[in-house]
Every structure is written in C-alpha cells, then in structure tokens.
Specification:
With about 325 residues, this protein is an alpha/beta fold. The mean pLDDT is about 95. It has a domain of about 220 residues: TIM Barrel. The strands form four sheets. The protein has an eight-stranded parallel β-sheet. Strands 1-2 form a two-stranded antiparallel ribbon. A two-stranded antiparallel sheet has the order 7-8. Helix content is about 35%, strand content about 15%. A hairpin with a 5-residue loop joins strand 1 and strand 2. It binds adenosine-2'-5'-diphosphate. Adenosine-2'-5'-diphosphate binds next to helix 10.
Length: about 325
C-alpha cells in the first residue's frame, strides 16, 4: 500500500504525508528496514548526515532505482544541513557530500537541521569540546546561511528548502529576509508536545509541518543515558486515552498517534527498523478518528519535550538555542 496522501508545499511540490525516519537506525539494521519499507509502500524517507547512515541508504535506493522497481520521481528524499555546517560557504559542499552518499543528483527537501552552529575539528572528525560540552559557533547567521540554501535550490541540488527545530522568531527572521520562503518546518510533535502556536503560525505563513518523534522517540533515553542525563521519558503508547481509542478501532496505539497527526494536516516520520511495526505505521489510511476522539487527544497536550538536546550538552549556550528553558 503506497501512501497516497500528500502535503503540498508553497512551491507546488508534493510530499507524501507519511514517511520513514532513519534517526537511530544503525547501518546494519537500516538496510533491511529500508528494503522492507520500500516494499511496504513508503516513498518518503527522512535522512540526515548526522544519523551516520546515508551511505547504506544510498546503496538501497540505487539498487531499487537500477532494478527498475522504482523511479527517482516516485521517491521523496529529505536530508539536512548538519550543525557544524551552519556556515554560508559550507552549504553546497556539505549537500553534495550527502548527495554522493545517497547516490542521488538532487534531494526533494533540504532542511537546516538545527538553528545552532557547533564547532567541529575536521582533522579529528569530531566536535570541539570544552568543560561545558560541545562548543557553540557564536557566529551563526541564519539569514546568510539561508542565502546559501536558496543558492543550492537555484542550482537544482534540492527541489525545496526548509528548516528544522527553529522557533517562531527564527522563522520570522528568515521570512523577513528571504527570496524563497521555507517550504517546510520539521519539529518534535506528538500528543504531549502539540506546539499549537508554532503550527498555527506556520499554517498562516504557508509553511507545511513535519512531526518528528511522533511516537515519543523512546530511543532518546539511550542517548540521554550515554550523556549522563537522568530523565524519565513518557511512553505515549501507554496512555489510557490512546489505548482505549486504539481498542475502539481495532488499531494499535502507535497507529492512533500517527493518524491524529495526519488528520491535523501534518506529515509524520515515525522511525522503525522492525518489519511488523514498519507496516503497521503505514496502515493508518483506512479509518478516521471521531471529533470526540480528536478532542480527547488534543486535551493530552502537556508541553513535554523529549528531544531537548540534553544529550548534546553545550548547545544550550548558543544564542540561537531555540527552546525556552
Ligand atoms: P523499532 O525501530 O524497534 O520499531 P519515533 O518515531 O517517535 O522516534 O519513535 C521511534 C521508536 O518507536 C523506536 O524505538 C521504534 O522502535 C518504536 N516504534 C516504531 N513504531 C512502533 C510501533 N508501531 N509500535 C511500537 N513501537 C514503535
């Protein structure tokens, strides 16, 4: 079953509403998962160089395209400008590296991954650190970086451009200074973090929204632990209201959480490397939530942010850190 619901960007480009996330999908798992995902009907794949798996994703995409099982035009591939490359001169080189890894001539959507630049030691291949964690690049200038995003769009290296993890003020600054408006904002969004003001703002400005961590991104617990961050993360699939709505429809809690996002006119990119769950997450187009059920889910909003970058210590010192403390 191919996802036949699309979001239309302000430039006319169409993006399948449901995609597959590849964050925290290790190389060895992602090859099998992506083959299964394409088999199941996923056409929208969300990537980023910081996920360290674009090479294997590229090999799978090439094998599908070369074998004639799929055309490039049927795919919608997103990738992102990583935090060390929030420098105008770096944008084209870094996008070309992603394209080489993904074995593509263009991506469908290129996003600035985060609003804060971080210093990187190219020779050592690692982030520069001090006692406070990674070292912010205090010179980050969104307007200058956005000009380079417009330039790679103009060169045809991407079909659309956008931002991720930006707040309203940061998006407005780009809108006030751009030639090409962002087509898409990617943010954490789920029943416990609904971000209504930001989403209404994007709607008013004609910017589509993609929900990352739509299932609560339980894998972040591992990252937090590795970084010494002790935090209890909510289990969205164990919320009573979600479970009872799931039972009423003969669906799983994950399917309810995803359907709720799609019905709000957003895109969702759940990550899974499990064959059954992959299929399950795409199988959400044969039922509808009632107005009462939507109300119940809307009422769960609790401003609980799972991906606050606590596992990326030091970034909170950047003047462009997007989240209010
Ligand atoms: P797995 O890859 O083993 O399926 P998010 O997309 O919010 O970041 O959430 C991803 C997490 O949720 C991963 O741990 C993933 O594990 C798990 N997950 C994905 N789909 C489902 C599902 N349908 N039911 C339960 N857990 C899921």
């Amino acid at each position: 079953m191919v996802c036949d619901k699309f979001l239309t960007f302000n430039n006319g480009v169409k993006m399948p509403a449901l995609g597959i996330g590849t964050w925290q999908a290790p190389e060895k798992e992602v090859e099998e998962a992506l083959n299964l995902a394409l088999e199941a009907g996923y056409r929208h794949i969300d990537c980023a160089p910081v996920y360290l798996n674009e090479g294997v994703i590229g090999r799978v995409l090439k094998s599908w395209i070369d074998s004639g099982k799929i055309t490039r035009e049927e795919l919608f591939i997103t990738t992102k400008l990583p935090p060390p490359a929030l420098i105008p001169e770096a944008v084209e080189t870094v996008l070309k590296k992603s394209l080489a890894d993904l074995q593509l001539e263009y991506v469908d959507l290129y996003l600035i991954h985060v609003p804060f630049g971080i210093k990187f030691d190219e020779a050592k291949g690692e982030f520069i650190k001090d006692d406070g964690g990674v070292v912010p690049d205090m010179t980050t200038d969104h307007v200058a970086v956005w000009k380079s995003m417009e330039a790679v769009l103009e060169k045809g290296l991407t079909k659309s451009i956008g931002v991720s993890n930006f707040n309203m003020k940061q998006i407005q600054r780009i809108l006030d200074n751009c030639s090409v408006q962002p087509a898409n904002l990617q943010i954490e969004h789920h029943v416990y973090l609904q971000q209504k003001d930001l989403i209404n703002f994007c709607k008013a400005k004609g910017i589509t929204v993609t929900a990352y961590a739509p299932l609560g991104s339980k894998g972040i617990a591992t990252l937090n632990k590795a970084a010494g961050v002790d935090r209890q993360l909510p289990d969205l699939m164990d919320i009573e209201e979600v479970k009872s709505i799931a039972a009423a429809h003969g669906k799983t809690p994950a399917q309810i959480l995803l359907r709720w996002i799609i019905e709000r006119g957003l895109s969702a990119i759940p990550k899974s490397t499990n064959p059954e769950r992959l299929k399950q997450n795409l199988n959400i187009f044969d039922f509808k939530l009632s107005a009462e059920e939507v109300e119940k889910l809307n009422a769960l909003d609790a401003n609980i942010r799972v991906c606050d970058f606590a596992f990326f210590k030091g970034v909170e010192r950047h003047p462009e850190f997007p989240f209010a403390s």
